[in-house]
């Protein structure tokens, strides 16, 4: 699948945070030469260190051969300069914070510098791909590649087709997802796409239940994991995603789709307090520094 005679071989991932370094890892493991770029060397090195840690963990658990780890690391390098990062890339993936203006600016700059890029992707979980695409010089090559956290373990990639996305770019993206060993679902560029809209609706209702004293945090999650066979409850999922990320998505969808997505006060209160979930050590649950879930947080 893809354009005749074309295979994506060189990638630039913009943003070395949780999603960015995860995307860079799976691309390198799939055989692409990958540049991981962020705005300063400290962020880049932190992202590369996370990749090394993930790959080392795979070797320790017997899931990954040492030679495969070394080969993946050999295909991955860090970069601060945007032009140097994207110049030779035939795939550009943006994985920066969920800020529409910022995404438009960064992808506009990157697209202008990425002469070889055949696919320009945004990892947004809810923002309009078509509007982001219009900020670039090649909107027909822009689409959404919505990966899920943790990227190296989650099997789903939501492929979001913008209003001007061409068949060639879509085909290349679908071939790439298959090469990564993941499953693609193609969705139209609508607010929240499919996964964020459904997942957020469940998460926000769980938060309202907490506010109303319907049940404790862990009881609500157990109802979904045991009763509906969800692998993780909606409140623990929120801690993994990041409460700040979920708040931003909720505010966007409330504006686009209405009151059903108005953020509950408990979510706003926890974000104001810096209790952003697993990455901050506390959200709806308390988390150990190694990422182990401890127990429900005190929400009083």
> Considering the protein shown, what is the CATH homologous superfamily of the largest domain?
NAD(P)-binding Rossmann-like Domain
Distance between the termini: 53 Å
Principal-axis shape equals globular
In spatial order, strands of the major sheet run 3-2-1-4-5-6-7-8
Indicate the percent of residues in helices: 40-55%
Quick one: how many beta strands?
A: 10
Radius of gyration equals 19 Å
Beta content comes to: 15-25%
Structural class: alpha/beta
Mean pLDDT: 95
- Oligomer state equals single chain
- Taken in chain order, the helices and strands follow as EHEHHEHEHEHEEHEHHHHHEE
What CATH architecture of the largest domain do you see? 3-Layer(aba) Sandwich
Would you give an account of this structure?
- There is one protein chain.
- The chain contains 12 helices and 10 strands.
- It folds into 2 domains: 10-188, NAD(P)-binding Rossmann-like Domain (Rossmann fold, 3-Layer(aba) Sandwich), CATH 3.40.50.720; 195-290, N-(1-d-carboxylethyl)-l-norvaline Dehydrogenase, domain 2 (Orthogonal Bundle), CATH 1.10.1040.10.
- The radius of gyration is 19 Å and the shape is globular.
- The strands form 2 sheets. Strands 3-2-1-4-5-6-7-8 form an 8-stranded mixed β-sheet, sandwiched between helices. A two-stranded antiparallel sheet has the order 9-10.
- It has 300 residues and is α/β, with parallel strands linked by helices.
- Helix 5 (100-113) links the parallel strand 4 (91-94) and strand 5.
């Amino acid at each position: 699948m893809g354009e005749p005679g074309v295979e994506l071989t060189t990638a630039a991932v913009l943003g070395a945070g949780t999603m960015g370094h995860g995307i860079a890892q799976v691309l390198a493991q799939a055989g692409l030469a990958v540049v991981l770029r962020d705005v300063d060397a400290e962020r880049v090195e932190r992202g590369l260190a996370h990749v090394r840690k993930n790959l080392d963990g795979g070797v320790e658990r017997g899931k990954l051969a040492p030679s495969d780890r070394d080969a993946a690391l050999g295909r991955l390098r860090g970069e601060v300069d945007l032009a140097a990062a994207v110049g030779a890339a035939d795939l550009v993936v943006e994985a920066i914070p969920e800020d529409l203006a910022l995404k438009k600016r960064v992808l506009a700059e990157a697209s202008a510098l990425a002469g070889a890029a055949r696919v320009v992707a945004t990892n947004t979980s809810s923002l309009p791909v078509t509007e982001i695409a219009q900020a670039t010089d090649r909107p027909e090559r822009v689409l959404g590649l919505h990966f899920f956290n943790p990227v190296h373990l989650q099997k789903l990639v939501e492929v979001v087709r913008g209003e001007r996305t061409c068949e060639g770019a879509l085909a290349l993206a679908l071939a790439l997802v298959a090469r990564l060993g993941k499953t693609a679902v193609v969705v139209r560029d609508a607010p929240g796409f499919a996964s964020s809209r459904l997942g957020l609706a469940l998460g926000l209702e769980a938060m309202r239940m907490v506010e109303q004293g319907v049940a404790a945090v862990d009881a609500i999650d157990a109802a979904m994991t045991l009763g509906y066979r969800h692998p993780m409850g909606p409140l623990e999922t929120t801690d993994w995603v990041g409460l700040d990320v979920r708040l931003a998505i909720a505010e966007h969808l409330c504006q686009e789709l209405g009151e059903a997505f108005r953020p509950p006060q408990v979510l706003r209160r926890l974000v104001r307090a810096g209790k952003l979930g697993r990455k901050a050590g506390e959200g709806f649950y308390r988390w150990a520094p190694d990422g182990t879930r401890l127990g429900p947080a005190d929400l009083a």
